Automatic annotation (TrEMBL):
Glycoprotein keyword on record: yes
Cellular location(s): Endoplasmic reticulum membrane
Signal sequence, start to end: none
Name of the protein: Phosphatidylinositol-glycan biosynthesis class X protein
Main location: endoplasmic reticulum
Membrane topology label: Single-pass membrane protein
GO biological process assignments: GPI anchor biosynthetic process
Domain of life: Eukaryota
Pathway: Glycolipid biosynthesis; glycosylphosphatidylinositol-anchor biosynthesis
Keyword match Disulfide bond: no
Regions crossing the membrane: 195-218
Phylogenetic lineage: Eukaryota, Metazoa, Chordata, Craniata, Vertebrata
Provenance organism: Dryobates pubescens (Downy woodpecker)
């Protein structure tokens, strides 16, 4: 019974995530409620570690700008990202997102991060590709390491305890309730049967625009 009680207390940690806005450019909103196990987290830094699949990415230049304005704090692994790569040439991205206390809820933390969908290959019979975001991992970094061993375990995270300090420190992870529903990003894709039409229209538009530019250059240019 004692083991079951400990497991129930550890599972009291709850995570929710949702994608805001529409289209390719979205905001990933994460919320963590520590519940009972939060009693050991006084003075600790709370973060969420989430893996973004290849169909979605974070713009490092946009993130740097937001961090300069103290609007968000995050670590990207790897920190070099090809923002132009399509989904089938990209790799997964690991994000450590530092969370801020929610003043409306004791033991609650939240953070938001702008994310962007990548272009996908044309599909056979669907005009949308689905990018699934799994539940993130809840992490804590504490100065005194006084966390309950039943709920928290050391995690292999090479990142500072806050966005303002340098040097890696010891992070701890906890078991928690998975998100109620996986977040799914719907990315518009083209249909393969339209490829010939797209190529013809693109060629015609290119020829027309080139002709207009050439005509204007001949009429108004100085050679």
């Amino acid at each position: 019974c004692a083991v079951l009680d400990v497991q129930a207390a550890c599972q009291d940690v709850a995570v929710t995530q949702e994608l805001l806005k529409e289209g390719f450019h979205r905001d990933l909103l994460l919320k963590v409620e520590l519940g009972v196990v939060g009693k050991d987290a006084g003075g600790c830094t709370v973060a969420a570690r989430t893996r973004l699949p290849s169909g979605i990415y974070v713009d490092p230049y946009e993130l740097a700008s937001l961090q300069q304005q103290n609007l968000t704090k995050a670590v990207l692994i790897p920190d070099v990202i090809d923002v132009e790569a399509p989904e089938y040439l990209a790799t997964d991205l690991l994000v450590l997102l530092y969370m801020e206390p929610d003043p409306r809820c004791s033991g609650c933390f939240s953070a938001a991060l702008p994310v962007h969908g990548r272009y996908h290959r044309p599909a056979e019979d669907s005009e949308e590709a689905l990018v699934v975001l799994k539940s993130p991992e809840v992490l804590l970094c504490c100065c005194d390491n006084g966390l309950s061993a039943e709920c928290w375990k050391p995690a292999e995270v090479e990142a500072p305890c806050s966005g303002k300090t340098s040097g890696a420190c010891q992070w701890y992870s906890t078991r928690h309730k998975p998100v109620y529903q996986e977040s799914i990003l719907q990315v518009p894709v083209g249909l393969r049967q339209h490829s010939s039409l797209v190529c013809v229209v693109t060629l015609l538009v290119t020829v027309l625009c080139s002709s207009l530019i050439l005509a204007a250059a001949c009429k108004y240019g100085h050679f």
